[in-house]
Amino acid sequence: MNAPGFAAAPRRLEQLPFSHSFAALPPAFYTRLQPKPLPAPYLVCASPAAAALIGLDPAEFATEEFVATFAGNRILSASQPLAAVYSGHQFGVWAGQLGDGRAILLGEVAADAPGGALEVQLKGAGLTPYSRMGDGRAVLRSSIREYLCSEAMAALGIPTSRALCVVGSDELIMRETPETSAVATRLAPSFIRFGSFEHWYYQGKTAELKILADHVIDRFYPELRADANPYQALLAAVTRSTAHLVAQWQAVGFMHGVLNTDNMSILGITIDYGPFGFMEAFDAGHICNHSDSQGRYAYASQPNIGHWNCYALGQALLPLIGEVDDVHAALAGYATAYQEKIDELLHAKLGLQASMEDDVGLFEAMFKLMQDNHVDFTLFFRRLGELQRENPGADAPLRDLFIDRAGFDAWAGQYRLRLGRENRSDAARRAAMHAVNPKYILRNYLAQIAIDKAQDKDFSEIARLQKVLERPFDDQPEFETYAALPPDWASQLEVSCSS
C-alpha cells in the first residue's frame, strides 16, 4: 500500500480511531485472542512515513507506551485483537487450513487508502489457534527484512503492505539456530488473501464464501456491485491487478520467494515478505528462496505463477460465479494485462516513448545479453540512462558490466538506431529513465549488514539504509557505496522460509 499520507492532525496512540469491519464478520472467520507479551521489549526501528498514513505522531515512537503497544504487551482500549483463518496451496500443493499463525489484527484505522482505512497487524505476537507446529513468534532477522522491504517497495511505487515498526526482545526462539525474537507491525487496507476464499470453498461452505466476497466487494470494489455478475467482475479485477503487480516486480527484478495462494492479496498488493530478493547478476532462472528446491518461484516463473494462483482463486469463486466459462472469461484477462503492463514498463525503462513493431526483438536480445553476461540488473538499467546517442565512446561504465564487449556493442548499436526513430534529447531521455530505473534497491547484503549490527543493539544502519531507500531514484552522492556492485561474500547469502 503506497497511498499518500493521511491528511489529519498528528494523533497520539490513544487517539487512533479504530474500526472493526473484519471483526464484524461472523465468528467463524477468526478467533478473538490477546497477544502474548514480549519480554523486555525495545524499539528497533519505526517509519515516520508509515505513521503518517494513519495520522500517528512520530513523537510517539519515543514513548514506553508505543513500544509496549506494538510489542503486544499493552492493548489499546479501542482495539479488538483477533487472528484470521484461511487456507491455501503451498508450493502448488493443497495445504488445508492455515491462518494467522503468529499475526494478530488490532483493527483498522482511518486512512487515505482503499476502503478508507488501514488494518494494523502485529506479526510475531504469539501463538494462535492457527499456529500449527509454530511458536507464534518472528525473529529479529526476518522482521528487519520485512520492515525495510515494505518501505522500500512503497518508495519504488509498487503496491505493498507497509511497516510501522519493529520491536525486539532478547527472548530466544529456535529456528536453525537460536535467534532473538521480534514483533513487526504491518499496515494494509486488508490482509485478506486468495486462500481466505479457498478455505470456504474446500469446506463446501458457500454461505461463508459469499459473506467474504460481499465484504470484499462492498468495502474495496463497490463499483462492481452494479455488475450483472459481481463475483465474476471481482475475479476479473483481482486477476488484472495481480497481473499488473507481477509485471512491476519483474521490471525491478524483485522476487517474492513464496508465491503460495495464502500469500496473495485480494487487493493486488505485495504482502508477506519472507525469503524475497532483488535480482543482482541477471539470471532469469534465479531462485531467491533456499527452501524452493524445485524452483517453482524462480524469477522467470513469477508471471505464470501469478496466473496459476488466479486460477486457484477462480476455482474458489466458482460457486458464486456460477459457470465455468464465466470463470475462464474473467481469468482470460491476465495474459493481456500482464503483457500490456510489462511492455509499458520496459519501454519506460529503455526511454522509449512509442511502441514499435520490432521492440520485442530489442528487448529479447537485451535480456539474452544480460543473461549470457550475468549483468547486474539494477546497474544495467541505471547506467543505460547515461548512454549518449551520438557518442559510443562514453559507454565505458555501462560497457564494462559485460564480458562480451562486442556483443554489447552490437546491441547498443541497435538500441541507438531505435532511439534515433524518436525525437528526444539525451537529457530528456536520461531524466525519464532515471525516474523509473532505481539507483538503490534493498540488496540482500545491505539488509544483512543492518541485521548484523542490530543483533548487537546498533540500529543505526537500519535507519541509514531506510533513508537511502526512501529516495531510490535520486542520485545521493553521500551514499554512493549503497549503489555499488555487491561484494564477493554477498553471493554466499541464503534466505529461506525460516523466520
TrEMBL record:
Mg(2+) binds at N263, D272. InterPro entries: SelO. ATP binds at G99, G101, R102, K123, D135, G136, R186, R193, D272. Its EC number is 2.7.7.-, 2.7.7.108. It is an enzyme of class 2 (transferase). Keywords: ATP-binding, Magnesium, Manganese, Metal-binding, Nucleotide-binding, Nucleotidyltransferase, Transferase. The active site is at D262 (proton acceptor). GO terms for molecular function: AMPylase activity; ATP binding; magnesium ion binding; manganese ion binding. Its cofactor is Mg(2+); Mn(2+). It catalyses: L-tyrosyl-[protein] + UTP = O-(5'-uridylyl)-L-tyrosyl-[protein] + diphosphate; L-seryl-[protein] + ATP = 3-O-(5'-adenylyl)-L-seryl-[protein] + diphosphate; L-seryl-[protein] + UTP = O-(5'-uridylyl)-L-seryl-[protein] + diphosphate; L-histidyl-[protein] + UTP = N(tele)-(5'-uridylyl)-L-histidyl-[protein] + diphosphate. Belongs to the SELO family. PANTHER family: PROTEIN ADENYLYLTRANSFERASE SELO, MITOCHONDRIAL (PTHR32057). Nucleotidyltransferase involved in the post-translational modification of proteins. It can catalyze the addition of adenosine monophosphate (AMP) or uridine monophosphate (UMP) to a protein, resulting in modifications known as AMPylation and UMPylation. This is Protein nucleotidyltransferase YdiU. The gene is ydiU.
